[in-house]
Design brief:
Its main location: mitochondrion. This is NADH dehydrogenase [ubiquinone] 1 beta subcomplex subunit 10. It is a peripheral membrane protein. The radius of gyration is 29 Å and the shape is flat. The relative contact order is 0.06. The longest helix has 35 residues, at 59-93. It is mainly alpha-helical. The protein has 4 helices and no strands. It has helices spanning 7-37, 59-93, 104-121, 130-147. The termini are far apart. It has 2 domains: 1-44, no CATH class; 51-147.
Length: 171
């Protein structure tokens, strides 16, 4: 290494090594050797029973289902955030081609994911509960069975037969 003759550069280098030395020592001697023994990163939790599989008086099962729901929600929120960032990055990458076909595929994936997120977690409030989410899912399934997919309009009654002799009401 070439020795610096400028006193200002020597001073800056010495201050850098004074601050960086203990950090580098801690990282190389303590953190990296213990990473193999203690796998703190990317911890995988086992899947637990959902709220629909819990008995009404099994509070431990309900507690585990609530925490599983919150973990799933945080993962889904992060996925949605990453998709949003990719779309925004695509739009700001080339300002001349803004709004063209280049980013449409990314936007469609983001829009589908956002719709799925809202269908599952939307309207639950700031402190979502697994039981409310399950009830919301049940209500949505009942609605779709009776009226068709949400957002497609209400389907006509297939079995409704009008009596031709019945008097018609004026509109």
């Amino acid at each position: 290494m070439v020795e610096e003759r400028n006193p200002l550069i020597r001073f800056v280098n010495s201050m850098y090594s004074l601050i960086d030395g203990p950090v580098t020592f801690f990282r190389e001697k303590i953190v990296e050797p213990n990473q193999e023994k203690y796998p703190y990163y990317h911890q995988k939790f086992r899947r637990v029973a959902g709220i629909d599989e819990c008995y009404t008086d099994d509070y431990v099962c309900k507690f585990e289902a609530q925490h599983q729901f919150l973990r799933d929600r945080s993962v889904d929120c992060e996925i949605l955030s990453i998709l949003r960032q990719r779309y925004e990055h695509c739009n700001t990458e080339d300002l001349n081609n803004r709004g063209e076909e280049k980013c449409e595929a990314i936007y469609e994936v983001y829009k589908d994911a956002a719709g799925a997120w809202f269908a599952k977690y939307g309207d639950l409030g700031p402190m979502p509960d697994v039981l409310f989410a399950f009830t919301k899912q049940q209500h949505r399934m009942i609605w779709e069975r009776r009226h068709g997919p949400v957002g497609s309009g209400m389907k006509e009654d297939e079995f409704k037969v009008e009596d031709p002799d019945a008097p018609r009401k004026k509109p």
